[in-house]
Each structure stands twice: as C-alpha cells, then as structure tokens.
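Researcher: Go.
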Amino acid sequence: GQTLVQTDEAAFTSSDGTVEFFVYSPLWSGNPKTYLTIASTEELVDEKTEDKPETSSSGGTKTRWVTVKAKDGSYYRSFVSIQRQLGTGSEVHHVFGIKYRDTAAYEMYKTAYTDFKQSLWQYAD
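Model: Structure:
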C-alpha cells in the first residue's frame, strides 16, 4: 500500500500542524524545485549571506539564511542554503527549512529544527 518516490527533497509536518520541516539533499548539486524562490504571496523579512573562501584543505562554502512571511500573515518560512565546493571541483548543495505559524510555534520547535539540520548523514556511492 505504499508508493516509493525518488526525490531529493522532503517535508515533514509536526503532529500539531504548527510547523513544517524541509530538507533538500541531492547526491551532488542542484536546486530544490521551488523552495528558494520567494513567492508573489510572500515578502522578504531578512536575508544574510556568508562566503567562506577556499582553503588548502577544503573548497569554499556559500551559506544563505532567509526568512520570508506570507503577505496575509498566515505563516513565516526560514531556510538555510549551504553550497560547498569540493576539492574535486564538484559542488554539493543542501537546504534546510522551517515553516511556522508564529514565533511561539518556532520557539516550541527551535531545538527540534536544530537537531533536524544536524541529523543529515549523506553518503556517496
């Protein structure tokens, strides 16, 4: 009775329905279908980007943190996009997000969201 779908992204809703966690984790690079896009029904609240240059032991990393809110006030959505250059010339890209009704819901699930972001273990073939 289950259907398996091959995908690089997934969303998980909390049991009380107040938050949704999102993860995008392809084997290598790429972008989620729509998650990085700010919809016409949303507005930008905050954005920060950090570029870490390449070092002798690792490639560079570009990290982007974004928070948007629905124009009708029904939700907020925050995500972090992490793009890493590997020494082989390849790139990996991960995106973690949380969509929440209000600050109280975010605060309630903040620790779970942090744990969720740290739980990704990705292995290459």
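Model: The mean pLDDT is 88.
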